[in-house]
Amino acid sequence: MTNVTDDFLSIVLNETPLLDVRAPVEFEKGKFINATNLPILNDEERRLVGIRYKEAGNSAAIKLAESLIQNEGKEKRVHLWQDYLKKNPEAKLYCFRGGQRSGIAQEWLKESNIDITRLKGGYKAFRNFLMQQSEDISAITPTLILGGRTGSGKTILLNKLQNAIDLEGVAHHRGSSFGSFVNAQPSQIDFENNLAYRLIQFHHKNFTHLVLEHESHNIGRTFIPKPVYDNFMQGELVLLQTPIEVRALITYEEYVLGALKEYALQYGEEGPKKWAQNVQSGLKRIQKRLGNQLYRQLAQLFDKAYSQDTQAEAKTFYLEWIALLLERYYDPMYDYQIKKSPLPVVFEGNTIDVLHFLQHQS
């Protein structure tokens, strides 16, 4: 009997390794946590087989696939799968619909005395499960939305809670005009899949509330699916109050020191220059909203900070630049959003008070 499973819940809760035999182009478009792509057909082979399928049907497509792979190609693929399964013996196998490609891979591995379970319905069925679970869980889970002005330390606080999901972390973006990392954000599909994993894992820990940061629908170039976002926004608001000097320092440590380190690791000696160019581009993007006078003032402050010879000298100007940007741009924008927000405010206070409150709502 064919060894298949549709126990997708177990796969999520255990973060089971997954062997994805789809073509690389399919994998890049959308994948799952802990999935490794070792395709049975490369992109060009998949394209040719697809054309043959449309022109002459399934049997002709299978014959073409077999001729493209041939014996040497088969041995190479099986060898790669064997190496992966030695390191991940509990892995499950899938293709797009759980049919021919994963079925053939399963048979080839069986010939090598390796039994592997494949996903019933493949990638498509598993993704449908994840999307439905995201909607269902977000609909029944009370949420506490952590708000606060930019730089308040919301992410730092979230990471101290067991019943929180860091949406910016899942989106790999800091959530502002200057929030991009060196490495690209996940694709939209990957973001949705990863968020679903987090929601399912959260749900099965039996917390009473889910804590999230107060986010817009979009986080960088990814967006929270509308039904899920609407469910999140049925919650209650907790406001974190942090003095401007602390907020400027938190922002400096993350957006300046942390970002410079990240760029240096990625680009070496060119890192600081590339980081500065990215910040200058970020300022340019919001120039119209800043107004020309404030834009020039901020641009000059940043250039002055960046041109200093020592980190200690630069820090003073960076903190001045950050404080001005927070007070004149981000604070009015956030205060307006809070004022018009329909979410009821159930608590507000400093970091210690808010953390204590949220820890007692788990």
Automatic annotation (TrEMBL):
SUPFAM superfamilies, per the entry: P-loop containing nucleoside triphosphate hydrolases (SSF52540), Rhodanese/Cell cycle control phosphatase (SSF52821)
Rhodanese domain ranges (all copies): 12-135
Organism domain of life: Bacteria
GO molecular function: tRNA 2-selenouridine synthase activity
The entry's keywords: Selenium
Pfam families, alphabetized: AAA_SelU, Rhodanese
A biological process term (GO) from this entry: tRNA wobble uridine modification
PROSITE patterns in UniProt: RHODANESE_3
Protein name as it appears in the record: tRNA 2-selenouridine(34) synthase MnmH
Naturally occurring in which organism (per UniProt): Sulfurimonas sediminis
Originating gene: mnmH
